[in-house]
Design a protein that fits this description.
Blueprint: E1 2-6, H1 8-15, E2 21-25, E3 36-41, E4 47-60, H2 66-71, H3 77-88, E5 97-105
Parallel strand pairs: 1-3
Antiparallel strand pairs: 2-5, 3-4, 4-5
Length: 108
């Protein structure tokens, strides 16, 4: 089963259903609609819930709209690059593909 890691500060909002979208760059897992996932704490490496991908949309970073950026908590495009270069390194460029992943929690 494919996994996605999340910072512990995001776990509560995932579990209470208020967070249903995540973004990933440089997807090496070939994430697709219908995939079943285990969500893992990035600090403890422990599974905290299972989910299913509802929809996946891909956009180049330079094609993200202000609405896209604000909905995910970025002030603007510069802020997007600043934050994502911390996670992914200097390889985050204008043409980098961003996977916008909508998910739902799976009942176990």
């Amino acid at each position: 089963m494919k996994t996605l890691k999340f910072h512990p500060k995001l776990m509560e909002s995932i579990l209470d259903g208020s967070k249903t979208i995540t973004w990933r760059l440089f997807d090496d897992k070939d994430l697709r609609s219908g995939d079943h996932l285990e969500f893992i704490s990035s600090e403890t490496n422990e599974k905290f819930v299972q989910a299913e991908i509802v929809e996946v949309e891909e956009k180049q970073a330079n094609r993200l709209t202000d609405d896209d950026l604000h909905a995910y908590g970025y002030r603007d495009r510069d802020h997007f690059f600043e934050i994502n270069r911390k996670y992914y390194g200097d390889g985050v460029m204008e043409n980098t593909l961003v996977k916008i992943i909508e998910f739902k929690i799976r009942e176990t």
